[in-house]
């Protein structure tokens, strides 16, 4: 082999980490909802030292996105663990009212090989043609990516901790589909649309169920029929609804309002057999 | 083979393997994240300290521009225990035109830079039931709906952003219970370009008219024929017990068998690498 070509390959390889180091989201600001939630926990080091392991995050992926500035809420990694904080502690888990429990949502979002999915890890992307995506890897853990649309409030309304963690549910549920061998369609893991009552290009079915139909910790259950099943957008809507309507008492109003708006937006336009539930009531405050 | 060439080949081989292995050794050996700020103790120890009383909106006109951001900061951080306090103070400010105008300014100022802040300001303005608020909410509702923008997974992000805010504006208009505001809500229910806003308008009109038959009949004259199912949409009211919600759901599913989801489909579980990863035949 030509030694010059080898040297060129080595040089190009060295450029790869440099390229990822240059690409980041807008780190000059955070949404009102991110700031308000942040102020409920501040720089809680014990939590983020647990969180990065629970979500299998690494400095390779997040090193230039707040990894060494983990309490600067303007940056991506702090925003990520801000959202994880909401998943981990923010729900009331009221069996009389909540769709599902913290155990379900944590099981969907966190890294572990469990009933919800095979191993996953969380990474960032600058690709703003997506909010996030689940990537299958034959070798090693599958990957949950979240994009700048979930971090930069100048880019999208989803740059808030409720919507960000809602995307953890959505992408994690693609992992559930993979684990249990379900084909949810060929448009990015969804049915192609617009179709039926779905007005966008990536559509799901809403598998309606009552409160209490799933014990907490049983959201993963399926019986092979539409009677006991969930789709990615549905899990996302139910989670956002639980954040909006039955959170822990200390969850800030700005977080609840944003979660409700996201839930109802999705429920109105992403389901073939929709609309999905309307969360909360339309009273302004 | 020279040592330099061997070393170069090892590096090249390592790069090929790295592309197949998404968990190279340095993932597991990742250094922990760290912060420059001082760490705190458990957040629960500070919960009670953060329960601040609501700031007043009973201010002179020249003080409105300072009072409103102060109230927004408090309101955004407030929790469910403080909801009624917030409602009381907002209602008391109904006739304060300067305050209402300042909330409107804040909502419009932040609509492109912080959707959650704009939602907050609009929620407060809607709750206020103020004539100045009605004018502002109507103006926002009729902002031109973008036809193009950033496309992300099947939606135009700018449409979603404005749709959410216009949906919140419709909530405020419906809450006013005035004839002119109701006309705007009914217009939105049938004619707004966004499904998100139409859906919110339908729900807001129904809820503000106690889900009456009369309200349903009125709406059915305005809404699109293919959106009549929204009249029966299941709402999870915060006070609904499981029994109440489940009953609503059963009624909905009986009235709309077409809302039953299709049976899920299986795909063969991957058992081998894709054919492109197979070695060539010998």
Which terms summarize this structure?
heterodimer; A: 285 residues; mainly alpha; three-stranded mixed sheet; two-stranded antiparallel sheet; 9 helices; 7 strands; 42% helix; B: 282 residues; 12 helices; 54% helix; extended
How is this structure best described in words?
With 285 residues, chain A is mainly alpha-helical. Chain A has one domain. Chain A contains nine helices and seven strands, in the order ααααααβββαβββααβ. The longest helix of chain A has 20 residues. Chain A is globular, with a radius of gyration of 19 Å. About 2% of the residues of chain A have low confidence. Among the domains of chain B are: 89 residues, no CATH class; 87 residues, no CATH class. Helix content of chain B is 54%, strand content 3%. A two-stranded antiparallel ribbon of chain B has the order 1-2. In chain B, α4 packs across α6 and α6 packs parallel to α8. Chain B starts with a helix and ends in a 16-residue tail after the last strand. About 4% of the residues of chain B have low confidence. The interface between A and B is large, with 122 and 114 residues. β4 of chain A pairs antiparallel with β4 of chain B, so a sheet runs across the interface.
Contiguous uncertain segments of 5+ residues of chain B: 16-27
**Helix fraction of chain A?**
40-55%
The oligomeric status of these chains comes to heterodimer
> How many E-type strands of chain A?
7
Question: What is the beta-strand fraction of chain B?
Answer: under 5%
Q: Quick summary of this structure?
A:
The complex is a heterodimer of chains A (285) and B (282). With 285 residues, chain A is mostly helical.
């Amino acid at each position: 082999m030509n030694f010059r070509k080898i040297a060129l390959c080595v040089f190009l390889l060295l450029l790869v980490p440099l390229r990822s180091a240059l690409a980041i989201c807008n780190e000059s600001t955070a949404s009102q909802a991110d700031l308000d939630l942040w102020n409920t926990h501040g720089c809680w080091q014990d939590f983020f030292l647990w969180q990065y392991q629970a979500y299998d995050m690494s400095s390779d992926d997040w090193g230039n996105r707040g990894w060494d500035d983990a309490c600067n809420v303007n940056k991506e990694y702090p925003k990520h663990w801000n959202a994880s904080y909401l998943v981990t502690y923010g729900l009331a888990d009221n069996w009389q009212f909540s769709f599902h429990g913290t155990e379900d949502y944590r099981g969907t979002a966190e890294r572990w090989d469990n009933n919800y999915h095979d191993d996953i890890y969380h990474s960032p992307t600058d690709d703003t043609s997506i909010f996030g995506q689940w990537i299958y890897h034959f070798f090693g853990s599958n990957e949950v990516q979240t994009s700048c649309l979930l971090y930069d409030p100048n880019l999208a309304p989803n740059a808030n901790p409720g919507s960000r963690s809602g995307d953890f549910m959505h992408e994690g549920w693609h992992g559930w589909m993979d684990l249990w061998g379900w084909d949810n369609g060929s448009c990015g893991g969804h049915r192609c649309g617009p179709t039926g009552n779905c007005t966008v290009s990536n559509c799901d079915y809403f598998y309606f169920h009552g409160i209490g139909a799933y014990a907490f910790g049983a959201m993963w259950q399926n019986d092979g029929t539409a009677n006991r099943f969930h789709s990615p957008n549905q899990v996302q809507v139910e989670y956002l609804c639980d954040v909006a309507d039955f959170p822990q008492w200390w969850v800030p109003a700005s977080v609840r309002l944003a979660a409700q708006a996201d839930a109802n937006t999705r429920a109105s336009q992403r389901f073939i057999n929709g609309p999905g539930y309307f969360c909360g009531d339309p009273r302004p405050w | 083979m020279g040592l330099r060439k061997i070393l170069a080949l090892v590096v090249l081989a390592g790069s090929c393997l790295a592309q197949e292995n998404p968990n190279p050794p340095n993932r597991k050996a990742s250094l922990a994240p760290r912060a420059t700020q001082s760490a705190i103790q458990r957040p629960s120890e500070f919960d009670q300290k953060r329960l601040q009383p609501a700031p007043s909106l009973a201010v002179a006109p020249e003080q409105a521009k300072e009072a409103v951001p102060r109230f927004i900061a408090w309101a955004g951080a407030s929790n469910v225990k403080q909801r009624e306090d917030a409602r009381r103070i907002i209602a008391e400010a109904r006739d304060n035109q300067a305050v209402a105008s300042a909330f409107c300014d804040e909502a419009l100022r932040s609509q492109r830079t912080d959707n959650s802040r704009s939602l907050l300001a609009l929620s407060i303005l809607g709750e206020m039931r103020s004539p100045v608020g009605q004018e502002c909410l109507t103006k926002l509702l009729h902002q031109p709906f973008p036809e193009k923008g950033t496309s992300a997974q099947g939606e135009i992000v700018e449409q979603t952003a404005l749709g959410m805010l216009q949906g919140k504006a419709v909530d405020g208009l419906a809450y006013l219970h005035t004839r002119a505001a109701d006309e705007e809500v009914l217009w939105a229910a049938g004619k707004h370009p966004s499904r998100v806003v139409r859906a919110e308008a339908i729900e807001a009109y129904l809820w503000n008219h106690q889900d009456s038959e009369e309200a349903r009949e009125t709406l059915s004259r305005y809404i699109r024929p293919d959106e009549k199912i929204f009249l029966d949409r299941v709402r999870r009211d915060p006070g609904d017990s499981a029994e109440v919600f489940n009953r609503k759901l059963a009624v909905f599913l009986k009235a709309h068998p077409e809302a039953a989801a299709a049976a899920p489909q299986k795909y063969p579980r991957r058992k081998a690498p894709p054919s492109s990863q197979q070695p060539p035949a010998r």
